TrEMBL record, chains A, B, C, D:
Domain YjeF C-terminal: 8-275
Lineage, broadest ranks: Bacteria, Bacillati, Bacillota, Bacilli, Lactobacillales
Gene3D superfamilies referenced in this protein's UniProt entry, alphabetically: 3.40.1190.20
SUPFAM superfamilies hit by this protein: Ribokinase-like
One Pfam family named in its UniProt record: Carb_kinase
Cofactor(s) named in the record: Mg(2+)
Listed name of the protein: ADP-dependent (S)-NAD(P)H-hydrate dehydratase
UniProt binding sites for (6S)-NADPHX: 43, 104, 155, 218
Protein family membership: Belongs to the NnrD/CARKD family.
Length: 277, 277, 277, 277
């Protein structure tokens, strides 16, 4: 029976590189985030904020047109694209280092069409983060996953839908049996989030119930996008994003009964600076 | 002649539970807030902010479509639904632990139709908070109240409309005579707010005239929603929300001539942490 | 030759009353602000913020429909009404203690129609603050002023248009000759703003060139609305608003090269508390 | 072989004048910023914020109508105009001291039509800052530059498009050969930004890779607009804007892994005050 290794603070200094003096925004990657229907616009906005505040070089948000105003009112640093304009979306995806799809995407036919198009366009040298509704769509519609560097960030119920493993049966061994077929890095979110990588299974030992509120997963997905766009070792980047997310929340929870996702995002630049290698 | 008991700080530690380590967002309840026509969008936004910042697990705001942008610009953590889409609203209500209806809803025929539909859909095991315009609608249109756990939050004029008791006759005895028929927890808002519960009548002894500004009631309604979604004893949750609202305002009023509703909301996570049991 | 008296800090304690414990939002007045066409929405938003943050009980903003989102994204405490809905506007004006008309209103025919309607509806026991574009409209279109408690807040060029007195001829004596006919309190804005009241002429001796930026006048107009809604002696309220506006700016200018209007507004609750009588 | 002189902190005190007591908003110039299509609205918003926070007297933003809400939600101090209303735009340009064109403008035919109209309307006594997409448009469509005080702010790739000099050949001598024909001040952005003026070539020696993120250029363009509107010596104003931008970023980067453009803007009033001459 395999065991998960504890994820420790060491991952931060090992991953978060001091920036080179002659770098430019292109050095830190293009991240495109896709999601946010008319009901769930906040999800893709929070994910986009996480990508920007973690230091991604250029961030574009492909979302329902009704979310354009709120996106720019909160985050003028992100570019906007209309999710119904497939031609524009394809160009943006092609030019990306990392694509995050799913936060607030929804699970209707339009969402499924968007996701299928992402899967068609994405190339094998790109990173694709599949989160939230997109995981449910993959599970429910049996969508074949594209050949690319895949990262999936299900919570336990989404993982049950995807893997067929009931929540109370989600042991490391059972999970690995499925993950070996998926050829993906899996971030299995729970109060002790596990990360399944090619180089082992890690378990987050920090975090706080003050994080138990809507939008936390969207924020983590955006951070995974931002970290993998910047840091070369993708597995490490995922692990560092997971650890940072919980560590910031723990710190805020010392004085807060609930920690809101946007409050974690706001702390990212200071946290990353304090822990760079 | 019955007397109201003073509401004291003890209610906080007795109510605000330390969160269990293995809890998740579902543990803290789904709150759906319904209101905000084209004129009064700010009211439902403030109520929704109060629900999120008090720690509710998942918050959805059903409101006029014209309020979608401002809602997400201020509060990406909330989900949005169009108040004219009754099918979607019904699904959302059914999936809720607590429904708050009324802030900024208005009193026209469309508002009445929304309220009637809420009354039809709500189930007996759910909590329904009726606030603001919704109270006026109930009074003016003689709407029969649904059988559910009812909380109503009238100010004195709204209570006059609902109970038929003129403001200067609103004594505990007279109020109880009506409340016994209503089978509801009543939060009667004044500069000494009273809370009528099955286990007695309580009177708030704190608060400040710096709170005398528009939106305070909307914020309190949202807090009642957030607290009752999280804390098992509903009466205690209502009392703790009322006390917290005034206590935060009192603290801010030490250095502010007027205290704005959104400023109370911003202090909620810190206040609740400082007073958890 | 008459001289203006210096306006001193004494006006603050003489005007800003400690709030009575049993007061409620109605005690602090209903203020309706009218302005903000599609181009100048920021002006009426800043004025509305000033009214809310100075402590007015209830604030409604009548403006172009395209400004609804930004108003509520910044200021959920204000209610919104569509400036093209004259019936609704009339009801709102009738129910107001103070009406502020002009910030960002523009000077086209639609703006003139709005202003004429305000003049028709306003009653003699109400306070009407005429600012910005509305002053230009009165001057250019020779609109007869309504019989009510009038306050006008022209800058020097607007006063030239209205009074016919060239800027370099705007002495106290010449100004008084016109003001006696107008039957209005005049706030003549310059780097040494003068206030012409029935009880004398006052000159502001504080202020800073860091205030020389767009939107300062809109903010002052909103403060005049908020102060006159709350404090019984209208002349004193106007003087206290003028003094507070400059005093806050002076304080901020100690560490800022430019002081933005919204930064003054944010300081109002603390400033007023520190100087209440 | 010519060498660039190092740009030093001395430029600040030499440029940023203490404001005269009797100045008014007109003293600090009218700046009109043009850009922001439906995809890139954040760019013109960030540029406009930079102009306002650096102290420009009056700022108008001509942009796609879909950006109106987000502009005013973030920056009520700016006025808005619809970029498709050429008549209104022409009047606004004519009344400006400084026009900034390009941030988020895009490079399609509509953008080209806007830019051509700016070039037609601008007068020889005005300052025109050409940034971002507008530089690409000039290069790709071989647009003749207008006779006015021109400032262009290309990054290295844009300068390659405009000058024909490949990035690795962009030496001071080669650059000067082209710039002599352009009759423009050139801000050539890289991690060591160079400024080519009539009075010499300067090189920025400060700055931080924490600035390597989208929107930095837009913010600098807005600052160049704000500084040149206020300070008489245009070359000095450009140099002071470039230096201030990097100096603020350096300071923030001491505690932040990434510095976001809007965070630099927020520090401008304090930074300028601390360094005024």
């Amino acid at each position: 029976m395999q065991e998960a290794q504890p994820l420790t603070e060491n991952i931060l200094a090992a991953t978060i590189q001091q920036r080179a003096a002659d770098s430019y925004k292109g050095t830190y990657g293009r991240v495109t985030l896709i999601g946010g229907n008319r009901n769930f616009g906040g999800a893709i906005i929070m994910a986009s904020e996480a990508a920007v505040y973690s230091g991604a070089g250029l961030v574009t948000t492909i979302t329902d047109a009704s979310n354009q105003d709120a996106l720019h009112a909160r985050l003028p640093e992100a570019m906007f694209a209309d999710i119904t304009d497939f031609d524009q979306s394809r160009e943006l995806i092609k030019g990306s280092d990392v694509v995050v799809v799913g936060p607030g995407l929804g699970t209707d036919d339009e969402a499924a069409a968007v996701l299928a198009d992402v899967f068609n366009v994405i190339q094998s040298d790109q990173i694709l983060v599949i989160d939230g509704s997109a995981i449910t769509l993959v599970a429910e519609r049996h969508l074949p996953l594209p050949e690319t560097h895949l990262i999936m960030t299900p919570h336990q119920m989404e993982w049950q839908r995807l893997s067929g493993i009931a929540i109370d049966k989600q042991t490391v061994d059972w999970n690995l049996a499925i993950i070996d077929q998926l050829d993906a890095t899996i971030v299995l979110k729970s109060h002790r989030t596990q990360v399944y990588t090619d180089n082992g299974v890690y378990e987050n030992t920090i975090g706080t119930p003050a994080q138990a509120t809507g939008g936390m997963g969207d924020t983590l997905a955006g951070m995974v996008g931002g970290f993998t766009a910047q840091f070369k070792d993708t597995d490490q980047a995922v692990l560092a994003a997971v650890y940072s997310h919980s560590a910031i929340a723990e710190k805020l929870a010392k004085t807060q009964y609930v920690v809101l996702p946007h409050q974690i995002v706001a702390q990212l630049p200071q946290f990353m600076k304090a822990h760079e290698g």
